[in-house]
Amino acid sequence: MALRSAVFWLLVLLALALRDSCDGASSHSMKYFFTGISEPSQGLPHFVSLGYVDDQLFSYYDSNSRKGEPRVSWMEKVEKEDPQYWDRNTWNFRGSEEIFRANLETARNRYNQSEGLHTWQWMYGCELRGDGSKGGFQQYGYEGRTYITFDKETLTWVAPDPQAQITQRNLDADPGFNQRQKFYLEEICIEWLEKHLSYGNETLLRTEPPVVTMSSRTEVKDGMETHVCRVHGFYPREIDASWTRDGEVWLQDTFRGFLTPNADGTYHYWISIQIDPKESGRYRCHVEHDGLQDPLDLELKEPTVSKSNLGLIIGFVVAALVVVGVIVGIVVFINRRQEDYNAVPRRNQAI
Length: 351
Description:
This protein is of the alpha+beta class.
């Protein structure tokens, strides 16, 4: 029972994590994640919808409450301007909930599977990048594998499995439907993202500069030095941290940590490098972030002597195992139709 719940939320959270990067200029996104399971149990809903602007959960719906609800205070501004917002979106969520039930059964039959625990997921969203360009995506997923993906540039669907090619042919047979998907991703979704950014600008558009610290060790066995550059307490999440040698980015013998949130909504990150101590003067930890007026270039600290770097190694291995374990469970995505200026597309497409 607990395992099912853990797997369910793990899939949702991983889908969020894998779509974001810690590098590059600041960008903003609005994304929706819908997950359905075929065998709900004790308090675990069979359908959940999560709406995110950047890293903030602003919209929530599940099959137990059957009601769309805000998750941030700034959504009150939306309700004042659009009193029917939650009623309209609740109706959309309920429609998707019913279609998810049918899609789970259809997919199970197409893959010739028995009854039991199966998962169906959809993710769609849009992005305003730091360079002014826009992005958008829609994808279905079933049982931890990509089922079908929308290519908005060619106005076609891409299906990796034969079982999904039936859906592909059905969707591509309606060019008008595909054109509406493109219009939603490039116009309507971006419009709503900009609205939400204006409503939540005090938190979504804030900047908090990183605090950068360095630590170092010398490995007695071979005399090599391990240096760790830790970046704390920054927002937004986009950050460019790298090791440089003689002013050039240096990737050799470099390990990267995972961009993770702090309790206060900020983030932390780390990178490490192993070098010959004779060349330590050539290396710097380089950090760029929107909260910094100028990039930081930190010199290496004098290392402490350690009999073993076992602690660091264990940390790297554990972190890697966590990612591998999560990736094994990922279920990605599904598609919906948009015909007006609702925040959520009006109708999810049955397969």
